[in-house]
Write a structure and sequence with these properties.
The complex is a heterodimer. Chain A has helices at residues 41-48, 81-85, 87-91, 93-98, 101-114, 130-141, 160-177, 188-194, 212-216, 221-228, and strands at residues 3-12, 15-25, 30-34, 56-61, 66-69, 148-152, 180-184, 197-202, 205-210. By secondary structure, chain A is of the alpha/beta class. In chain A, the strands form two sheets. Chain A has a six-stranded mixed sheet. Chain B is mainly α. Chain B is built from ten helices and no strands. Classes of the chains: A alpha/beta, B mainly alpha.
């Protein structure tokens, strides 16, 4: 077990955004959290990595780092690619003592190669395309060899080819570092190409849990509405 | 038919009170956040979380890059005061005290407060917008997720650089202000440099210099702390960045005046 979420509840201004949800993700497994905008998908990730506190419930994670790949990469624009990737190695006391500068440079180069990039260490984020920024943010996330990786809409805003590339890296990272991964997305290609299991959120609750194939079968009103991208169904967009 | 409750809600008095309530809530909330950040910065400094490389970068930003505008503002304030006072004082037979007056004024007040205003508009606004942009683009979240304390990483070098560099900026600005006062007095009232500097030294006490340095360091730290806090708690995209910057400048200006008053009461009352 790498992540276990039990009866998690989070409310903003008395409105329950996450309402008593529970799920598990094992090492080497990719769970996709899907749902329409505003269904609380990204909030789940922020609760797991501790960016916001939860009201009740429990989040149990294995020892080790939790990494997150942000929707818009969130690269530090004042630092070049090398400094972005090596940020945690330079700024965390225990890691700073562990590695020499040469070793850090080597790790940066290795992580860049893992995401298919080479020789861009001295470039700044503003000099990179959206897809490349996303891959650099992957490299930054895995620099500490985390045992949990959270992806917040990793293919949002990318062209279809870049999306495919990113989806392939998510799968290859799963094999490479055997981390438990959670991918928040509403893109069908990302769900079908990366996920082992899927949960669907609506109004803060889990309304479907199964495999991507089960999702595509559209056997429940929720899955049918989501896959068909229909406005008619049990899920109503908030005004 | 309109109920009493509905009528009251639409009345101007209700709206004014509601607005005051929101402003008071915002004031207490901001003050609490700045205080909390201040305590975390002190804790960070005491636990040795000082990043020398980042501190040097921020010192350069706070001190060197702000110097031209600070010197210009203090110098011009000196011209404004000397040009109006020198001629009149010479006419009334008090020409020998112009240097004393200018030195006291610049060292005790003008140097620190004008530099504070200059640094607020130049560095404070830039710190607030920098951190606010980092907040709305999730860069601050990324720092925290990577296991680095974002407050210690972002605040400690910036607040410390304000504390260290502001006294240096004020000393240089005050020196320039006194010299500009001498030149202006000569041009406007024909006062000799010798007469000006003889009385200037009479009005210069070690206590004044000490208070000036302490006050400047406090102003510098306050500007950085307030600006960083306003930026750190920004939300909501471009509008949020603008609001945070605006708040940082307003709060810094008001804090400088309040701190100046506190220093005046403590040391010169």
């Amino acid at each position: 077990m790498s992540i276990e979420v039990k009866n998690l509840v989070k409310a903003f201004d008395d409105k329950k955004v996450i309402d008593d949800i529970s799920f598990k993700v094992d090492d080497g497994e990719i769970l996709a959290i899907v749902g329409f905008s505003g269904s609380g998908k990204s909030t789940v990730l922020k609760l797991i990595c501790g960016l916001i506190p939860y009201d009740s419930g429990e989040i149990i994670t294995s020892e080790g780092d939790i990494a997150m790949v942000f929707q818009y990469s969130a690269l530090f624009d004042s630092l070049d690619v090398e400094d972005n990737i090596s940020f945690a190695l330079h700024e965390r006391k225990e890691l700073r003592k562990k590695y020499t500068e040469d070793e850090i440079r080597k790790i940066v180069s290795e992580k860049l190669q893992l995401v298919g990039l080479k020789g861009i260490e001295s470039k700044f984020p503003s000099e990179l395309s959206g897809g490349m920024q996303k891959r650099v943010s992957f490299a930054r996330a895995i620099v500490t060899n985390p045992n949990t990786i959270l992806y917040d809409e990793p293919t949002a805003g990318l062209d279809p080819m870049s999306s495919t590339l990113i989806e392939d890296y998510i799968v290859s990272l799963k094999h490479e570092i055997n981390a438990a991964s959670i991918v928040v997305t509403h893109q069908m290609s990302t769900i079908t190409r990366t996920a082992d299991r899927v949960i669907m959120l609506y109004d803060g609750k889990i309304v479907f849990e199964g495999t991507p194939q089960e999702l595509l079968k559209q056997e429940t009103p929720y899955t049918k509405q989501f896959v068909m991208a229909s406005l008619d169904g049990p899920m109503q967009m908030q005004a | 038919m309109m109920t009493l409750r509905k009528y009251l809600k639409q009345s101007a008095t209700y709206k004014i009170f509601t607005q005051f309530g929101i402003m008071f809530h915002d004031f207490v909330d901001t003050l609490g956040k700045i205080t909390m950040m201040g305590l975390r910065v002190i804790k960070g400094i005491l636990s040795g979380q000082i990043r020398p490389r980042e501190l040097i970068i921020q010192c350069e930003r706070f001190g060197i890059s702000s110097l031209p505008i600070t010197l210009s503002i203090v110098g011009m304030t000196s011209i404004i005061v000397a040009s109006q006072v020198a001629h009149e004082m010479v006419k009334q037979g008090g020409g020998n005290f112009i240097g004393l007056l200018m030195t006291m004024l610049i060292v005790r007040e003008v140097g620190a407060i004008m530099s504070g205003f200059a640094l607020t508009s130049m560095i404070g606004s830039s710190l607030a917008s920098e951190l606010a942009t980092m907040r709305v683009t999730e860069q601050i979240d990324a720092i925290d997720v990577l296991g680095v304390d974002s407050v210690s990483y972002l605040f400690v070098p910036r607040v410390l650089s304000g504390f260290i560099m502001m006294p240096l900026v004020v000393i240089i600005a005050s020196f320039v202000g006194v010299i500009v006062g001498a030149v202006t007095s000569d041009l406007f009232a024909g006062l000799s440099y010798r007469a000006y500097f003889d009385s200037a030294l009479l009005g210069l006490y070690m206590k004044d210099l000490g208070v000036c340095l302490l006050k400047s360091a406090t102003f510098g730290a306050a500007i950085a702390l307030i600006s960083c806090s306003c930026g750190y708690y920004a939300s909501g995209g471009a509008k949020g960045v603008g609001l945070a910057t605006n708040k940082a400048v307003v709060w810094s200006f008001i804090s400088i005046v309040i701190l100046d008053m506190v220093f005046a009461i403590i040391f010169f009352f």
